[in-house]
Write a structure and sequence with these properties.
Layout lengths: L10 H5 L4 H8 L8 E4 L7 H7 L4 E5 L2 H13 L5 E5 L2 H4 L7 E2 L2 E2 L1 E7 L7 H11 E12 L17 H7 L5 E3 L4 E3 L3 E8 L5
Parallel strand pairs: 1-2, 1-6, 2-3, 6-7
Antiparallel strand pairs: 4-5, 7-10, 8-10, 9-10
Length: 199
């Protein structure tokens, strides 16, 4: 399903709205020892720099074939061989067997959810995301701030806050790895892990 206000603007304009190095530096993909998945890859804005610093494979999903085609072309232009793309509605259909599971084993080191949680069914997506994590894995969430005006993004009343996500995911046995951070001019970032990770 398409989430609310999920239309994409022109590629160059879209990518001007982020400090991409700030985002990737916060994620630290070079420290993630397992495969990573990204839901809603769009133009590959974050996918490509993440894959460049990732030793394992990045599995990218988007509901829009045009987005997947464009991100795939950009990955080939950069000669990235550790990235694959899937046209899939993860919100409606989950990850399936394309990433994150070998038989019943969960093995994703991280799932990236950037600018996608502004819809009523986000807990179902977060539940599916948590299901795919290895015990030492984490969910990386980035979203538009709701307390400032931004040049793009969904309506401010639709945007979740970090505190809301932390509160909602208690029922999913997820907890914050560290306090939320501000990223670039318009976003916040939050990392969640399973509450029993490392125990």
């Amino acid at each position: 399903m398409k989430v609310n206000d999920s239309g994409m603007p022109d590629e160059a304009y879209w990518e001007s709205l982020f400090d991409i190095e700030d985002f990737v530096g916060w994620l630290r993909p070079e420290k993630i020892p397992r495969d990573v998945a990204e839901v809603g890859c769009g133009y590959g804005t974050f996918s490509l720099p993440v894959a460049e610093r990732l030793a394992s494979t990045l599995h990218c999903y988007d509901i829009e074939p045009g987005m997947v085609d464009r991100a795939s072309v950009r990955a080939r232009e950069r000669n990235l061989r550790n990235i694959d793309f899937h046209v899939r509605d993860v919100v409606e259909n989950g990850f399936g067997e394309s990433a994150g599971s070998r038989g019943s084993a969960r093995y994703l080191g991280c799932v990236i959810l950037f600018n996608i949680l502004h819809f009523d069914g986000r807990l179902a997506l977060l539940r599916e995301t948590g299901r795919m994590l290895a015990d030492d894995g984490f969910i990386a969430i980035i979203h538009w701030q709701s307390d400032i005006e931004t040049p793009r993004g969904p309506a401010r009343e639709l945007r979740p806050t970090p505190d809301l996500i932390i509160e909602e995911t208690l029922v999913l046995d997820l907890e914050a790895v560290e306090p939320p951070v501000l990223l670039g001019p318009y976003h916040w970032g939050l990392k969640l892990r399973k509450t029993y990770a490392g125990s």
